[in-house]
Design a protein that fits this description.
Length: 190
């Protein structure tokens, strides 16, 4: 009886790695959505140095996503759950939860608590600041999961006109005109 065994030994050949050409990429740093500081007087440091999670939705972002209400502005914000009824509305106005806690009493306009049971429009808002985490040291009671601060638009020394027409289903039609006219370009100090 003859036993024949064969071993298959793979043969590995060394190959040279291909040489890639150098690629240089140049771009201008223009980030209109990035906010460096909060407009709130409670957060005095740069956002990167603030020991909280602060998400700022600037006017450019609100305009680009076509937000007409606060609920539409917050729809892409993580950690916020919207409560909506029929036709996207509730009897209590803007109703949302932040990190599982009710955010009904955690809405502010320019740092002043806004307890109104209304649906807030964003046509007069410069930016929306969402501060996540315990906010009792910043705003007091009712901010166990965080708070939302709406920063109002202010007049400027620049001529500006903005017209937005929105048309949608179910006979939705909306026309918004925002105009800033320079009356007197002199600044006064008291």
């Amino acid at each position: 009886m003859t036993v024949v065994s064969s071993l298959a030994i793979p043969v590995v050949y060394a190959q040279e790695a291909p040489v890639l050409n150098e690629v240089k990429i140049q771009a201008a740093l223009d980030v209109p959505y990035k906010a460096e500081k909060s407009a709130s007087s409670k957060l005095t440091q740069a956002l990167v140095d603030t020991p909280k999670t602060v998400q700022v939705l600037k006017k450019e972002m609100l305009k680009e996503q076509g937000s007409a209400s606060l609920m539409e502005a917050l729809r892409n914000t993580s950690g916020i759950t919207m409560q909506l009824g029929e036709n996207g509305n509730t009897a209590a106005g803007d109703t949302f939860q932040m990190r599982g806690f009710s955010g009904q009493s955690s809405t502010f306009v320019d740092g002043v608590r806004d307890l109104g049971a209304v649906s807030r429009d964003v046509f007069n808002i410069e930016q929306v600041e969402v501060v996540k985490g315990a906010g009792g040291a910043d705003v007091g009671r009712g901010a166990s999961a965080g708070y939302i601060n709406l920063i109002s638009k202010l007049p400027t020394l620049e001529q500006a006109n903005d017209i937005i027409l929105s048309v949608g289903t179910a006979d939705k039609k909306r026309l918004t005109i925002d105009s800033n006219s320079v009356v007197n370009d002199q600044q006064f100090s008291i």
